[in-house]
Amino acid sequence: MRVALIQMAPSADRDANIAQAQKLVADAVKAENPVLVVLPEVWSCLGGTAETKHASAEQLPAPGESGGPLYEALRAMAKEHGIWVHGGSIGETVSGEGKDKLANTSLIFDPHGNECGRYRKIHLFDVVTPNGDGYRESDNYVPGDSVEVVDISGVPTGLAICYDLRFAELFLALRAADVAMIILPAAFTQQTGEAHWEILIRARAIETQSWVIACGTAGWHTDAAGNERQTYGHSMIVNPWGEVVLKLGGEAAWGTADLDFDQVRQVRERMPIQANRQLI
Asked: Which residues of the chain have pLDDT under 70?
């Protein structure tokens, strides 16, 4: 399976972000003819105020029904190019506690534009990084509560988003579900990306013996307080032995790699970790 990573440098301007995604996807499809394209986390609106995030989000329809601009843009990319589209993640408007809140949600569309899966980010990024920058994703978002596996072109695929990468139990649950590929859109900070991005992606590939496709945002954006923040980029594809087969840089770009799923079988047969696992 040929997979294209669509590494974007999004802002808080939803319409500009949609146009950027459409161009990068079209360029990748024209040049490399991938089966699957993967977008990054919150590519639809990165930065801005809480009001901007809410205005850029949308309530998702039931599968098969018409949706808002983001939903329909992703569906149209799949149909126009005849490809599988993992829509990274977008802001999903949800109802809770008497007011609208958001979920950080992935959508997957098949080459006919049919929605085949969705996943809400479970682990919210409420941290202070070593340089003192604080992040409170829970101020605007509610967590998901379910592990999700979707069939992408016959490949059982696990879904995760960004901060989920730090929680091995989620990935072990996906391995127990016998996935062969895991897709993780992200918007890692520059500082945490430099320290942990590649290490964690390779670790998750090794421990699950799966292909891991990690697609990140890059570049600078402005947060609600007017601070300039940088995301790391360096989107990667790692094989089931933990080898990096594709790595992008720190700017908006796209790249492709060919995934051989026979490697999953070979690695698991030679080192049967799942059969050997002993829970303590």
From this structure: 96-99, 280
